[in-house]
TrEMBL record:
All residue ranges annotated as the Carbamoyltransferase domain in the record: 2-347
Highest classification ranks of the organism: Bacteria, Bacillati, Cyanobacteriota, Cyanophyceae, Nostocales
Source species: Komarekiella delphini-convector SJRDD-AB1
Protein name according to UniProt: Carbamoyltransferase
Matching Pfam families: Carbam_trans_C, Carbam_trans_N
InterPro entries documented for this protein: ATPase_NBD, Carbam_trans_C, Carbam_trans_C_sf, Carbtransf_dom, NodU/CmcH_Carbamoyltrnsfr
Stretches assigned to the Carbamoyltransferase C-terminal domain: 404-593
Family: Belongs to the NodU/CmcH family.
Molecular function, one GO term: catalytic activity
Length: 612
C-alpha cells in the first residue's frame, strides 16, 4: 500500500511517500523551488517522491494532509470573537485567503493534485486528513526504535493544541492531554525571536545560538509577568503582553515597556541586551520542557520519550532532557517541524487508520534522514561539462585520502554525496566541511562562506563509536539534535582576563582543541556518523582521523544565508562559485576553486540575504 503525506500552506511544505509502512522518500518543497521555507503546495516534492518510487499518482492508494483546516478555522473565529473588537485589521487580512482557499482545502488539494498530469480529479486516490499534533506525534513515535514510549509535541500551534502528550504502544498512539492556544511555548519563544530582531519561524536558531553569550537577567521578568508556570510544567501566558492573537506582530507595547525598548530593528546592531534576552528565554524554555518531561515520565511510567514539533529542534533543551529527567533514552524526529508532518500523517494513516502492525527497528526507521534525491555520475558530468567547469574524477580509494589532506590544510570543502537530507540539518549529504582544530574555521565559514552572523555556532560530525572520546555523551546522536559538553581533557583553561570577557568578545577565545565546534559554554551540537546510514561520509571521517588523529569534522549546511540547502549539482556549483569555498566534491568529482573559469560575480544577491 502506498500512502502520500503532504504538509503545506503554513510554512515548510513537504511531501513524503510511505510504501507498506516504509518511508521511501521525503523532501521539502523549498529545496526544489529555492524559496526558503516555501509554504506552497509541494508539487515538486510530490513529483520527486513518486519518481523515487517509480510510480505515478494514480498508483498511490491514499493521500493524507497533516492538518484539519475546518478545526483551525474554528479556532481563528473563536479567537477573533474572544478578543473583539481588537484584531479587526488582522481578521480582515486573514479572511480572504481562508474564504478563497483554505476553507475549501479539500477542493484546492484535488485541484493541485490534478495538475500533476496523471489523472483527473475523479480518479484521484482517497484523500484523508489527520490532526496537526497527531501528525507530529506519529512522526515522533512510529519511526522511533521504541516499542512503548511517551510522546511530547511542542510547537507554535496546530488546530488548537500547542502542547500535547501521547502514549505510543505498538502501532497505536493514545492522546493523554494538551495545552491549547493561545498558551504556547513555541509562540513565547517566537515572541522573543521577533523582539530581538530575527524572523519568526526561521530566526529561532539564531536566538538559541546567541543565548550562551548572555546572562539570564530577565528570567524573573518572564516568570513574574509573562508566564504562569506550574510545578508540573503546564503554563499560561499573560496575553496582555502578546499581540499574535489579534495583530500582525508578536508583542505589544506593554511587552516593550517591560523590557525597556521597542523591538530591535532587523539587522540592527546586536547588543548585550539581546544576548541577555536570548539567554533568559532559553533558560525559561529549558525549565518548562524539563518540568513537562518529568511529569510525563511520572504519569505514563515509561523509560523512553519521543519528541516532535518545532520546539523539539531546541537541541540544548533536548540534551538536558536526556541528562536530567530520568528517561533511559529519547528520540527526536529529525524533521521535527511542519515538514515532518508529511511523514507523520502518512504513518498515522498506515498504522492507525489502516490498523497495520509496527515493527520497531534498531536505530530508527528514518534511514538516517537521507530521504531526498541523489544524482548519478552521468548527470553530474553532463552538468559540469555544460558550464565548462574543470574537474577531476577520483575513485574513493584516492579521493578520501586526498580530501583528508585538503581538510588538514584548513581548506573549506563543499560536500555533495548520496541522497539529500530531510529536515533542517545537513548530515553529510549536502554539507560544508572543515577542520575542527582550526581556530579560524568558525569565523571563515560564517563570514566568507555562509555570509551570516559571526556568533553562529557550527556542529561536529564525529565517528559514532568515538563520540565519547570527545563529548560527554554515551549514545548516538545521528540527527544533530542533542547538545553535550566537550570532554574536560579537550578543554583549554582560560586566563583570568579571558574569564572576565562578556558578550560577543567571548567568541575569540580558543576553548578547546577542537575550537571550531566548541561553543562559548564548552558545549557542542553533535552529529554521530554511522557506517550503516552514510558509508561515504563515515569513510571520509575515518581517513581524516588516520591523517590527523582527529575523528571529528566541522559540518554546516551547504547553503548561504537566505537560501535553502542545495539539492542538485547545479545548486551546489552555483553556491560554490558565489562563496570563498576552496573545493567542491560532487560524488567522485572534485573541483578546485582556483581552476574554475573567472565569471562575473553579481554581488547584489549577497546584500539581499544580509537584509533577510
Amino acid at each position: 500500500m502506498r500512502i502520500l503525506g503532504i504538509s503545506a500552506y503554513y510554512h515548510d511544505s513537504a511531501a513524503a511517500l510511505v510504501v507498506d509502512g516504509d518511508i521511501v522518500a521525503a523532501a521539502q518543497e523549498e529545496r526544489f523551488s529555492r524559496k526558503k521555507h516555501d509554504a506552497r503546495f509541494p508539487k515538486s516534492a510530490i513529483a520527486y517522491c513518486l519518481k523515487q518510487a517509480g510510480i505515478r499518482l494514480p498508483e498511490v492508494d491514499q493521500i493524507v494532509f497533516y492538518d484539519k483546516p475546518l478545526v483551525k478555522f474554528e479556532r481563528l473565529l473563536e479567537t477573533y470573537l474572544a478578543y473583539a473588537p481588537k484584531g479587526l485589521g488582522s481578521f480582515i487580512a486573514a479572511m480572504p485567503v481562508w474564504l478563497k482557499e483554505k476553507l475549501y482545502l479539500k477542493t484546492l488539494l484535488k485541484k493541485e493534485l490534478a495538475t500533476l498530469g496523471d489523472c483527473k480529479r475523479a480518479q484521484l486516490p482517497q484523500l484523508l486528513f489527520t490532526e496537526h499534533h497527531q501528525a507530529h506525534a506519529a512522526s515522533a513515535f512510529f519511526p522511533s526504535p521504541f516499542e512503548r514510549a511517551a510522546v511530547l509535541c511542542l510547537d507554535g500551534v496546530g488546530e488548537w493544541a500547542t502542547t500535547s502528550v501521547w502514549l505510543g504502544e505498538g502501532h497505536q498512539l493514545t492522546p493523554q492531554w494538551e495545552i491549547d492556544f493561545p498558551h504556547s511555548l513555541g509562540l513565547l519563544y517566537s515572541a522573543f525571536t521577533y523582539y530581538t530582531g530575527f524572523k519568526v519561524n526561521s530566526g529561532e536558531y539564531k536566538l538559541m545560538g546567541l543565548a550562551p553569550y548572555g546572562e539570564p537577567k530577565y528570567v524573573d521578568h518572564i516568570l513574574n509577568h509573562l508566564l504562569d508556570l506550574k510545578e508540573d510544567g503546564t503554563f499560561r501566558l499573560n496575553m496582555d503582553y502578546f499581540n499574535y492573537t489579534t495583530g500582525l506582530t508578536m508583542t505589544t507595547p506593554k511587552f516593550h515597556q517591560l523590557f525597556g525598548s521597542p523591538p530591535r530593528e532587523s539587522e540592527g546592531k546586536l547588543t548585550q541586551r539581546e544576548m541577555d534576552l536570548a539567554c533568559s528565554i532559553q533558560h525559561v524554555t529549558e525549565e518548562v520542557v524539563l518540568r513537562l518531561a518529568r511529569t510525563v515520565k511520572k504519569e505514563l511510567d515509561t523509560d523512553y520519550l519521543c519528541l516532535a514539533g518545532g520546539v523539539a529542534l531546541n537541541c540544548v533543551a533536548n540534551g538536558r532532557i536526556l541528562r536530567e529527567t530520568g528517561f533511559r533514552d529519547i528520540w527526536v524526529q529529525p524533521a521535527a517541524g511542519d515538514a515532518g508532518g508529511a511523514v507523520g500523517a502518512a504513518l498515522a494513516i498506515w498504522h492507525q487508520y489502516n490498523g497495520k502492525p509496527r515493527f520497531p527497528q534498531d536505530g530508527d526507521a528514518m534511514r538516517g534522514s537521507y530521504l531526498g534525491p541523489s544524482f548519478g555520475e552521468v548527470e553530474i558530468r553532463d552538468y559540469l561539462q555544460s558550464v565548462n567547469a574543470p574537474y577531476q574524477h577520483l575513485e574513493d580509494d584516492k579521493l578520501m585520502p586526498h580530501l583528508a589532506e585538503i581538510l588538514e590544510q584548513e581548506h573549506v570543502v563543499g560536500w555533495f554525496s548520496g541522497r539529500m537530507e530531510f529536515g533542517p540539518r545537513a548530515l553529510g549529504g549536502r554539507s560544508i566541511i572543515g577542520d575542527p582544530r582550526s581556530p579560524k574555521m568558525q569565523s571563515v565559514m560564517n563570514l566568507k562562506i555562509k555570509y551570516r552572523e559571526s556568533f553562529r555556532p557550527f556542529a561536529p560530525s564525529v565517528l559514532a563509536e568515538q563520540v565519547s572520546n570527545y563529548f560527554e555523551i554515551d549514545r548516538s546522536s545521528p540527527y544533530m539534535l542533542l547538545v553535550a559538553p566537550i570532554k574536560d581533557e579537550l578543554r583549554i583553561s582560560m586566563t583570568q582576563q579571558q574569564e572576565e570577557l562578556f558578550g560577543i568578545d567571548k567568541l575569540n577565545v580558543k576553548r578547546s582543541h577542537i575550537p571550531a565546534v566548541t561553543h562559548v559554554d564548552y558545549s557542542a551540537r553533535i552529529q554521530t556518523v554511522h557506517q550503516q546510514t552514510n558509508p561515504r561520509y563515515y569513510e571520509l571521517l575515518r581517513h581524516f582521523q588516520a591523517k590527523t588523529g582527529c575523528a571529528v569534522l566541522v559540518n554546516t549546511s551547504f547553503n548561504v544565508r537566505g537560501e535553502p540547502i542545495v539539492c542538485t549539482p547545479e545548486d551546489a556549483y552555483r553556491c560554490f562559485m558565489r562563496t570563498e569555498m576552496d573545493y567542491l566534491v560532487l560524488e567522485n568529482f572534485i573541483l578546485v576553486k582556483s581552476d574554475q573559469p573567472q565569471i562575473h560575480k553579481d554581488e547584489s544577491w549577497k546584500t539581499e540575504f544580509e537584509l533577510d
